[in-house]
Request: fold
Amino acid sequence: MGFFGKIGQGLKKTRDSLMNSVSSVLKGFTRIDDELFEELEEILVMGDVGANTASRICQQLRDEVKQQGITDPMEIRTLMQKIVSRMLEGGQELTLTTKPSVILVIGVNGVGKTTTIGKMAANFKAQGKKVILGAADTFRAAAIEQLEVWADRAGVDIVKHGQGADPAAVVFDTVSAAKARGADIVICDTAGRLHNKKNLMDELAKIGRVIDRELPDADKEILLVVDATTGQNAVNQAREFKSAAGITGIVLTKLDGTARGGVVLAIREDLQVPVKFVGVGEGIDDLQPFDPAAFAAGLFEEE
Ligand code: GDP
Ligand code: MG
Reply:
């Protein structure tokens, strides 16, 4: 594991693309002026950070440069790292204090929900927690089988029905099993593709009602999984799900395969939803709790 650890490796493509551009801009200036900030802002927008967030970062840069009397363009990089780290801070911890607690995992097809659940299950198990998975993506038989493979791999229990079964009924049974077996954490998979968006949202609402009714006092996390390689699309999905499903956090997957890791900032700042995990590969160990400082370091520090 190199100097940066897993998150730094996962961010390599983003760092290479973003930091090459930032460095070459900074090298082109001998003093700090408006033009420098404008060029930086442009690079951040192209790096999927989002227009609003890019402008906010540059405004803070301007303020701090002034306050601290900084004159050397080469000091801007460290300053950006600090600003980004601060922006990402807050709300990244999961709240799972009750026994059981529930994590509902939602998101469109192919973003990495089932894989993320497998990785999370292994993580919690390693912390000594008793985990039970609910195969509430009943849309395709393969989805249930895939979750079973992950349950095996992680060494945790799974509750499943047949293909086409009512997902809310699967969730009901999973919660009942969790109570009966004294599980600490219930993690429910869901389908990402139904005939239309209203259908999907109705189904998620129904699942939510079952959980609220069966476990009124339990801690619940509704995690939206989005795929970093889709850039601004991931931001749009987060916006839609936030308004329809009341998400508590984001899991950003496939950071390892993309230069578009800047979307983390767009999601955090524009939507005010905390990122709780990042996926940096397909393996069971490739899910990291989101660490703002490590993330910012992975973006800005020189190798
Ligand atoms: P779902 O439809 O949302 O349940 O998505 P899946 O969990 O089936 O994942 C879709 C594909 O994305 C699979 O091939 C996964 O191995 C892959 N995947 C998931 N997370 C990551 C990640 O963090 N990095 C990479 N490189 N691939 C991932
Ligand atoms: Mg799936």
Remarks:
- The chain has twelve helices and eight strands.
- Residues 164 and 264 are 35 Å apart (CA to CA).
- The pocket of guanosine-5'-diphosphate (ligand 1) is lined by residues 107, 109-115, 192, 225, 253-254, 256-257, 279-282, 286 (CB under 6 Å).
